[in-house]
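Exercise: predict the structure of this protein bound to zinc ion.
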Amino acid sequence: RVVDLDGQYLLPGVIDAHIHARSPGYEYKEDWSSATAAAAAGGVTTVIAMPNTDPIIDSPETVRQAYDIADDDAHVDFQSYAVLTSENYDQVEPLAAAGVPGFKVFLGTTFGEIEPPDDGELYAAMEAAAGVGKRIGFHEENDEILSHWEAQFKREGRDDPIDHARSRPVVAEAEAVSRIILLADHADAPVHMFHVSSGTGAELVAEGKADGVDVTAETCPHYLWFTEEVMNEKGNVARVQPPIRDAEERERLWEAGIRGGGVDCIATDHAPHTDEEKNVEEPFGNTWESISGFVGLESEVGSMATFVSEGRLPIEQWAYMHSTRPAEIWGLYPRKGSLQVGTDADFTVVDPDAEWVGRKETLHSKSKTTPFNGEQFVGKPTMTVVRGTVVYGDDTLYAEEGYGELAPSGETTANAEPRTYPN
Ligand code: NCD
Ligand code: ZN
Ligand code: ZN
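Solution:
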């Protein structure tokens, strides 16, 4: 089939290296079919899923269980992280052999109640991961600091959505990022920061890179798009961990992370939950009774294309941060993340002039709850190509369940010099 792209952007297939597919265990929130239908519709060709499922993905058996489900159900290509906990931190080699692209450690409590390794266990896991060429990524919020604020806010009866954001101050992220960089430096190990939410966090990563530590980082469209004021406008819908920060932190995230090149890649932290769990009936009601996380797979290309259209992000840098760099970091390059024109290539086609509004009713994800509902975008994904086949186009999902394959993963690419692009 020959396709006339007629002035549209042709990007190497967008990779979302941070989604929660929720299966096994939480299929009422999302499953591999619905998550990857959302990916295909959103212009995303490969996803890497988080291991806070039920059971958690912490053994070769549970890795295989998740891969079997995804192999039957996925519409686009996939991978899954394994989690490292206080129970399995010494299982890095067998987990790597089971085909994970890397590891996630939850330093703070989020959905799933997973006990993190202590610093000694973590150090050992870092050395083992370095030995097999795999990177450990972190949910970088320090629980011990956070419990202090949360208790104080609850004591004072502060329970508005914006209070949830303010009860998780930037220092909790900064403390965790600094500590991990310190450990990684001594262990001589590659590490990654998932969902960096603040300019402070991005600046610490940039300093770590400058000091020669193999530290890479991700941020998410919502931290670049919104400020914490969204909590007052949209309520519990926008509740997420780490929280959306104030305008000054967002500006410094753009400066150090994007213009300065300190942040390597873009991913969504697509985190589906039900409306009841998010307490959107009472959007401005008790935020402590709402759950954190919201979906993003169907708005990420629109939001990043909008930054390009506004002249705030060079398109080459977008393609690097949303495709090439995550492929390098998780060992998928050059099978994924390169613009090689061949019969088995992945592409995302974007109409740069299409103006559209995010509408929850049109989402393929089981969860419809996102602060991007009602936001205006310039630039829309129009066609998604996985291994040479159009999986989504003409507003139609073409790929069957099971078309998606496990993407083979090799060793992580070492830290790159921060890349910046002329605008
Ligand atoms: C995530 C989830 O719902 O699984 N929630 C979130 O607020 N980010 C957990 C996570 O990414 O750590
Ligand atoms: Zn996380
Ligand atoms: Zn997440």
